[in-house]
């Protein structure tokens, strides 16, 4: 078993990993929740047994390179169900405040991309729950359920229920 304590870089954020962009690496597919774990044991897509025992202060990210050498291993975050909320009219402060308040009361991590707010869900049926929660502003927003790699906004560190 290969034990890893710290990633050596990230294929999306750091230079020097151009040779890996052609897919010449092993993949360690893990969920967003598992990215927060300090100790984890998994197998790569090619069967290499990996034991993560991360140093203090290290948090894995999608694209992190764990081993440099003949068989580099790259973290591949699994996609998950999310709700994408798009504002139909921009700069409506009341709608934005209520939207933030309602999502915040559900303790969901969020990602803000332009005029959209994205947050994870467990099942498609949660769309109905949020449509009811957003009843007072539903005419000003558009809700879409999709599957994607979700990265929470770094300043929105919340605990999920």
Show the helix and strand layout.
Layout: E1 2-4, E2 9-10, E3 26-30, H1 32-35, E4 39-43, E5 49-53, E6 64-67, E7 73-77, E8 80-87, H2 93-105, E9 111-113, E10 116-120, H3 126-133, E11 141-148
Parallel strand pairs: 1-5, 3-7
Antiparallel strand pairs: 2-6, 4-5, 6-7, 8-10, 8-11, 9-10
Q: Which characteristics define this entry?
A:
HSP40/DNAj peptide-binding domain; chaperone; UreE; Alpha-Beta Plaits; 3 helices; 4-stranded antiparallel sheet; elongated; cytoplasm; alpha+beta; about 160 residues; nickel cation binding; Urease accessory protein UreE; 4-stranded mixed sheet; about 35% strand
| CATH domain class of the largest domain | Mainly Beta
- For the CA atoms, what is the radius of gyration? 19 Å
Low-confidence stretches: none
* CATH topology tier name of the largest domain: HSP40/DNAj peptide-binding domain
Q: What is the helix tally? A: 3
User: How would you name the CATH homologous superfamily of the largest domain?
Assistant: Urease metallochaperone UreE, N-terminal domain
CATH architecture of the largest domain: Sandwich
Biggest sheet overview: 4 strands, mixed
- Overall spatial form: elongated
- Measured distance between first and last alpha carbons: 34 Å
Largest sheet strand order: 2-6-7-3
Count of DSSP strands: 11
User: In percent, how helical is the residue content?
Assistant: 10-25%
User: Which class best fits the helix and strand makeup?
Assistant: alpha+beta
Number of domains: 2
Secondary-structure element sequence? EEEHEEEEEHEEHE
Taken as a percent bin, the fraction of beta residues is: 25-35%
Mean pLDDT: 87
Main location: cytoplasm
InterPro entries: UreE, UreE_C_dom, UreE_N, UreE_N_sf
Pfam family, one: UreE_N
Keywords: Chaperone, Cytoplasm, Nickel
